[in-house]
Design brief:
The chain is α/β, with parallel strands linked by helices. It contains twelve helices and 17 strands. It binds ligand LLP.
């Protein structure tokens, strides 16, 4: 996507505008398959639930990891068959379980003993189970993303995981063990530690044939060291490897286009844009730093360079896109916020009755409007009762 195309799309569909490059996502899935030739992928839908992206996942032979009835419904609608559906998450309420059963979901990851009791109470089905193990260490990522930390709500410590595995195995439906140690893992140092924890569990449970190591690769992570850490374990034991990447295949395929509404000069410049935390929550929630640049207009001299804050249009300080940036941006300029393909649209909100923007997908180089922008009428679409 070049600058002229971005300007044309921003003119045509307005801003803010999400762009999602499906060609890029296809290439990234290809790279995942090349790095882990033995693995089965269950794409973590929470990263980006785009219909077109899920259709691509379905066509590629990958499956989906889904944690809500909405994600599961999207995956089913995209044509992902039951044998490639994995139910995750620490909740798994009745409606999610009912839909999983209807879809013939092959696997669910059990996060607690109570979750097992709930599935069991539903009666027999074709779903088999992984036990989610809490590895009990912080993988050194942002605290919100460190799902493997001992005090996190996820999984069971190895002793309790073994006790639960024994119960599930007694019912003949134990399939294996699952660890997702955290997100934004830049290197593979966590993986040997995870496998050391899992080895005694696989030694003890003969019927356990699947090891699911979750997702978590940072978008710029080199996959080769992860593969080198994991593949010998899997091959020597004849296990099936499942991976649940969300961010790695999608992050750099997404961009958010936003226009500068005001440039406020002062000790620090504030660029007030038409997108902020409602369209991209990550900077507000995690202090995430996304690349931001001005999309230049040929022949138009750039605004004076300044250092400052790239801000959203809402009334709180957390509403920002970037801190301490150096930009030649003036009123009316178009900004491109990068790395928005993962946890961008999936975490949008209607905060302050903001409208969700349109989304354009790019496939074989050509843009398609994939989702229209919300209008104000969409805001009260679900209201009931007197007008
Ligand atoms: N599997 C499980 C069980 C997970 O909890 C997650 C992410 C994934 C797979 C996918 O992880 P990934 O490959 O995308 O790192 N909203 C946060 C990220 C939260 C990730 C939660 N779990 C963010 O914007 O950074």
């Amino acid at each position: 996507m070049n600058d002229a195309q971005m300007h044309a799309l921003a003119e045509r569909h307005g801003t803010p505008l999400h762009l999602l490059d499906l060609d890029r996502i296809r290439a990234r899935f290809g790279a995942l398959r090349a790095a882990f030739p033995d693995a089965e992928f269950r794409y973590a839908v929470k990263a980006n639930p785009s219909t077109a992206l899920l259709a691509l996942v379905a066509a590629s032979g990958a499956g989906a990891e889904t944690i809500t009835e909405g994600e599961l419904a999207r995956a089913v609608r995209a044509g992902i068959p039951g044998e490639r559906l994995l139910i995750g998450g620490p909740g798994q309420g009745p409606e999610l379980r009912r839909r999983a059963r209807d879809a013939g979901a092959a696997l669910a990851s059990l996060d607690s003993e109570d979750q097992w009791r709930a599935w069991r109470g539903d009666g027999p089905g074709r779903t088999r189970f992984l036990i989610r193990v809490n590895p009990g260490f912080d993988p050194g990522t942002h605290p919100h993303l460190a799902t493997g930390a001992a005090d996190s709500k996820f999984g069971l410590p190895p002793g309790r995981a073994a006790a639960l595995a024994a119960e599930v195995a007694a019912d003949g439906v134990l399939d294996g063990f699952h660890v997702h140690a955290g997100s934004m893992l830049a290197d593979a140092s966590t993986h040997p530690r995870i496998l050391d924890l899992l080895a005694p569990l696989f030694d003890r449970f003969d019927g356990a044939r699947t090891v699911d190591l979750g997702g978590g690769f940072a978008p710029d992570a080199d996959l080769a060291p992860f593969a080198a850490a994991v593949l010998p374990f899997v091959r020597s034991r004849g296990l099936r490897l499942i991976l649940e990447p969300g961010r790695w295949p999608t992050a750099d395929a997404g961009r958010l286009l936003t226009r500068v509404l005001a440039r406020k000069e002062g000790a620090t410049v504030h660029w007030i844009c038409d997108a902020g935390m409602a369209q991209l929550a990550r900077p507000a929630l995690y202090g995430a730093e996304h690349p931001i640049r001005v999309v230049p207009v040929p022949g138009r001299p750039p605004a004076p360079v300044a250092r400052g804050e790239v801000q959203g249009p809402l009334c709180e300080n957390a509403d920002r896109l970037g801190r301490d940036r150096t930009l030649a941006a003036g009123v009316g300029d178009l900004l491109e916020v990068g790395q928005v393909g993962a946890y961008g649209t999936s975490m949008e909100s209607n905060y302050a009755s903001s409208l969700r923007p349109a989304e354009v997908t790019i496939e074989h180089g050509a843009p398609h409007l994939a989702r229209r922008a919300e209008t104000v009428d969409d805001l009260w679409r679900h209201d009931v009762g007197p007008d």
